[in-house]
C-alpha cells in the first residue's frame, strides 16, 4: 500500500486518483450486529470474536491518496531528478530550519536550478498571507514543492489551490466561507520534515487567523491531496525532543480518532490499527542516535502518513473538535494540544457504556497491550506517559475561564460515536491546562 504509484501521462496533472472504493454489497441479514443490537463486550482481556460478534461494515468509504508516494531513508534525493524530468516554473515553500539543515547543504545548489523562487513559512498561514503569496506569483508558477512541517505543507497546499481560484481565501474556507472550492489546484510535491500532521496525504489545508476573524478552518477537496509525497525519515533526525513528541502524538491522535470514528469501516479501522502498531514501535525511541532511532523514525513517518489517509477518509473526533477551536485563539503547538487532550479523553473512554466504543477499545487493547490487565483506555494512557521521550503534558501555558467558555461554545465531537456535552468538554480542557 505504501508504494502507491498511479502516475500516468494521460491523467490530467491536477486530478488525484481515487484508488479504492469499498462497497458493502452483502445482503442486509449479514450486516450489522453492532451498536444497539449487541450487548457490551466489556473489557475482555482476550478478544476472540465469535460468529455473533463478527461485523460487516455499514459505511461506504472513499479513499484518496497521492498519485505517487516515495518512501525510504534518503528518498529526498529523488526530488531533483523528479523535477528535472519535467521542467516547469516551480515555487518552493519551506521552513527556515530546512534551509539551515544538512539536506539543504547537500541539495540546495541543484534545487536552486529547478525553482524560480521560494517562500519561507514560519507559522500556520492566515488567509491574508495566502492571498499575498497568490498576488505575488499568480501566472508565474505551474508547480509547487513544500518541504517542512505541517504549517509549511498546509500553506503550500492552500497556495496551490488558491492560485487556481479567483476569489480571496476566506471566501472558500469551511465554517466562514460562502463559495464552494473547485476541483482545481497546482501539482504539489509534499516533503514532510516532521512526522505528525500527515498533511502530505490529506485533502485539507488548515488556515488560521487569530487576529481578525479568529478562525481555524480548512480548504478541502479531494484534488488538494498532494500529487507526490516524499517520505524520508532521515529528515526527522536532529529535531528537538519536544517537536518529535508533540508531532508524534498528533499522528497517534489522527489514527486513534479515525479508528474510533462512526464514519469508519473495516478498511479504515485496520489501516488505523496498522498505523497505531507502528506508533507503538516508534514512540519510545524517536530521539535515539542509533539504528533503533532510525527504525523508530521510519515507523513514525509511515504512521503519520497512514494517519493522514485515515483522517481524510474516516474523519476525526472530539480531541480535534476542541483543538480546532482552541487553535483559533491560541498559538499553542497543535500536536501538544491534541496530546494534552488525549489523556482526559482516555479517562472518559474508560467509562464509556457505548457498545461500539467498547468493542473498538477491546480490540485495540488486544492488539497493542494484550498483557495489560487494566481497561484498554487506561493501559494506553499509562504506556504513552511511561514511554514518552519528554513529558510534554507537564507545565505549559494557561487558559482563562473566558477562553474555555469561548472554546466549548464552538467545539463539537466531530465524527465520534458520542456527542459530548459542554460539562464533559470543559472537564477535558480543565484537565489539560491550568485555568487561571
Ligand atoms: Zn491533528
UniProtKB/TrEMBL annotation:
Record bears the keyword Repeat: no
Record domain Alcohol dehydrogenase iron-type/glycerol dehydrogenase GldA: where: 67-233
Domain of life (superkingdom): Bacteria
Key word Oxidoreductase present: yes
Gene3D superfamilies recorded: 3.40.50.1970, Dehydroquinate synthase-like - alpha domain
Top EC class of this enzyme: oxidoreductase
Annotated GO MF terms: alcohol dehydrogenase (NAD+) activity
Cleavable signal peptide: none
Domain Fe-containing alcohol dehydrogenase-like C-terminal: 245-366
EC number: 1.1.1.1
Keywords, comma-separated and alphabetical: Oxidoreductase
Family listed: Belongs to the iron-containing alcohol dehydrogenase family.
Name the record gives this protein: Iron-containing alcohol dehydrogenase
Amino acid at each position: 500500500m505504501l508504494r502507491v504509484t498511479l502516475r500516468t501521462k494521460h491523467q490530467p496533472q491536477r486530478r488525484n486518483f481515487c484508488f479504492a472504493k469499498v462497497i458493502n454489497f452483502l445482503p442486509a441479514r449479514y450486516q450489522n450486529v453492532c451498536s444497539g443490537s449487541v450487548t457490551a463486550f466489556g473489557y475482555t482481556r482476550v478478544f476472540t470474536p465469535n460468529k455473533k460478534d463478527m461485523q460487516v461494515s455499514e459505511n461506504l468509504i472513499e479513499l484518496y491518496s497521492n498519485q505517487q508516494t516515495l518512501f525510504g531513508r534518503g528518498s529526498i534525493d529523488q526530488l531533483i531528478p523528479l523535477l528535472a524530468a519535467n521542467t516547469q516554473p516551480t515555487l518552493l515553500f519551506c521552513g527556515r530550519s530546512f534551509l539551515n539543515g544538512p539536506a539543504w547543504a547537500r541539495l540546495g545548489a541543484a534545487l536552486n536550478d529547478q525553482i524560480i523562487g521560494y517562500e519561507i513559512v514560519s507559522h500556520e498561514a492566515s488567509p491574508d498571507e495566502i492571498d499575498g503569496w497568490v498576488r505575488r506569483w499568480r501566472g508565474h508558477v505551474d508547480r509547487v514543492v513544500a518541504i517542512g512541517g505541517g504549517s509549511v505543507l498546509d500553506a503550500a497546499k492552500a497556495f496551490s489551490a488558491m492560485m487556481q481560484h479567483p476569489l480571496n481565501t476566506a471566501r472558500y474556507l469551511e465554517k466562514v466561507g460562502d463559495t464552494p472550492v473547485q476541483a482545481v489546484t497546482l501539482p504539489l510535491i509534499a516533503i514532510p520534515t516532521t512526522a505528525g500532521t500527515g498533511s502530505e496525504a490529506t485533502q485539507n489545508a488548515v488556515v488560521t487567523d487569530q487576529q481578525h476573524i479568529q478562525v481555524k478552518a480548512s480548504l478541502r477537496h479531494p484534488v488538494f491531496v498532494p500529487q507526490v509525497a516524499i517520505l524520508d525519515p532521515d529528515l526527522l533526525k536532529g529535531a528537538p525532543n519536544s517537536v518529535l513528541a508533540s508531532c508524534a502524538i498528533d499522528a497517534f491522535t489522527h489514527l486513534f480518532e479515525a479508528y474510533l470514528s462512526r464514519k469508519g469501516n473495516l478498511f479504515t479501522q485496520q489501516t488505523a490499527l496498522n498505523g497505531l502498531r507502528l506508533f507503538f514501535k516508534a514512540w519510545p525511541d524517536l530521539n535515539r542516535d542509533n539504528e533503533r532511532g532510525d527504525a523508530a523514525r521510519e515507523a513514525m513517518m509511515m504512521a503519520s502518513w497512514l494517519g493522514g489517509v485515515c483522517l481524510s477518509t474516516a474523519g476525526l473526533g472530539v480531541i480535534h473538535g476542541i483543538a480546532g477551536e482552541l487553535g483559533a485563539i491560541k498559538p499553542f503547538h497543535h500536536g501538544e494540544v491534541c496530546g494534552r487532550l488525549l489523556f482526559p479523553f482516555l479517562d472518559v473512554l474508560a467509562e464509556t457504556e457505548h457498545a461500539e466504543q467498547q468493542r473498538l477499545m477491546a480490540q485495540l487493547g488486544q492488539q497493542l497491550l494484550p498483557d495489560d490487565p487494566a481497561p484498554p483506555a487506561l493501559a494506553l494512557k499509562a504506556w504513552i506517559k511511561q514511554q514518552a521521550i519528554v513529558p510534554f503534558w507537564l507545565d505549559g501555558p494557561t487558559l482563562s475561564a473566558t477562553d474555555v467558555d469561548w472554546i466549548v461554545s464552538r467545539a463539537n465531537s466531530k465524527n465520534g460515536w458520542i456527542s459530548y456535552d459542554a460539562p464533559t468538554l470543559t472537564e477535558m480542557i480543565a484537565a489539560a491546562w491550568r485555568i487561571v
